[in-house]
C-alpha cells in the first residue's frame, strides 16, 4: 500500500511539472515512465525545451512554483540555473529536464531511456 502512495505522489508531481511547462509554452513536452526499468534512477523524467535561456529559466521557475503551490515541496537539487541551457530539477522520484532546443537534440535524453513508456503532451 505504501508503494502505491509513493507512485501516485510521483505521478502527481510529474503532472504538476507538465502544467508548469505548459504555462510558459515549453516545446515537445514528454513524460518518461521509468517505473518498470530496473536500473532507473527515478519514477519519471519530465522533459521539454525552449528556444532561449530566458524561456528555459522561466519554465523552471513556473515548474517549481506549481509544485510548491500544490504540495509545498522544493526540489531536492537544482542544476543549470546560471546558464539556462539545461536545467535539472530533482524531486527524487521525478526528475525534470528543461533544455534549450540545441542542447536537447545534442544530449538525446529520451534515447538513453528507450525502454521507457513515453507520453507526449501538448503545449498550452
From TrEMBL:
One Pfam family this sequence matches: RsfS
UniProt entry keywords in alphabetical sequence: Cytoplasm, Repressor, Translation regulation
Subcellular localization: Cytoplasm
Subunit: Interacts with ribosomal protein uL14 (rplN).
Keyword Cytoplasm: yes
Name of the protein in its database record: Ribosomal silencing factor RsfS
Superkingdom, natural source: Bacteria
Species classification: Bacteria, Pseudomonadati, Bacteroidota, Sphingobacteriia, Sphingobacteriales
Gene: rsfS
Listed PANTHER family: IOJAP SUPERFAMILY ORTHOLOG, MITOCHONDRIAL ASSEMBLY OF RIBOSOMAL LARGE SUBUNIT PROTEIN 1
Family classification: Belongs to the Iojap/RsfS family.
Gene3D superfamilies: Beta Polymerase, domain 2 (3.30.460.10)
Record's function text: Functions as a ribosomal silencing factor. Interacts with ribosomal protein uL14 (rplN), blocking formation of intersubunit bridge B8. Prevents association of the 30S and 50S ribosomal subunits and the formation of functional ribosomes, thus repressing translation.
Amino acid at each position: 500500500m505504501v508503494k502505491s502512495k509513493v507512485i501516485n505522489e510521483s505521478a502527481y508531481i510529474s503532472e504538476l511539472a507538465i502544467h508548469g511547462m505548459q504555462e510558459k509554452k515549453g516545446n515537445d513536452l514528454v513524460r518518461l515512465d521509468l517505473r518498470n526499468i530496473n536500473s532507473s534512477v527515478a519514477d519519471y523524467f519530465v522533459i521539454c525545451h525552449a528556444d532561449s535561456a530566458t524561456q528555459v529559466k522561466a519554465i523552471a521557475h513556473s515548474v517549481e512554483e506549481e509544485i510548491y503551490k500544490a504540495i509545498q515541496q522544493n526540489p531536492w537539487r537544482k542544476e543549470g540555473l546560471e546558464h539556462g541551457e539545461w536545467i535539472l530539477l530533482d524531486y527524487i522520484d521525478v526528475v525534470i529536464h528543461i533544455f534549450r532546443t540545441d542542447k536537447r537534440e545534442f544530449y538525446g535524453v529520451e534515447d538513453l531511456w528507450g525502454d521507457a513508456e513515453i507520453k507526449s503532451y501538448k503545449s498550452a
